[in-house]
Write a structure and sequence with these properties.
Layout (H helix, E strand, L loop, with lengths): L2 E7 L2 H14 L4 E8 L8 E7 L4 H12 L4 E7 L1
Antiparallel strand pairs: 1-3, 1-4, 2-3
């Protein structure tokens, strides 16, 4: 099974550092990471796509829960 999580950052100024810290803290469960800037380079929004290593489901669920607790963050999950 392959799990992809999309992370939409609504306010990069407020939450980008918090997201970065979480992704660093849970780096052991992130196999691939792709950051996508908004159409306008000066936008306050951003998108990150990560591929999760499912061998440690507890840590991956913990990461998703912590991300969803941030105000401007929206996450979506795809499982193949």
């Amino acid at each position: 099974m392959k799990k992809i999580v999309g992370i939409k950052i609504g306010d990069r100024i407020e939450d980008a550092e918090k997201v970065q810290n979480l992704l660093t803290e849970y780096g052991s469960v992130i196999k691939t990471r792709l950051g996508i800037r908004g159409e306008d380079l000066e936008t306050d929004k951003g998108t990150i796509i990560i591929e999760i290593d499912e061998s440690d489901t507890g840590k991956s669920e913990e990461l998703e829960n912590k991300l969803s607790q941030l105000d401007s963050i929206e996450t979506r999950e795809m499982v193949f």
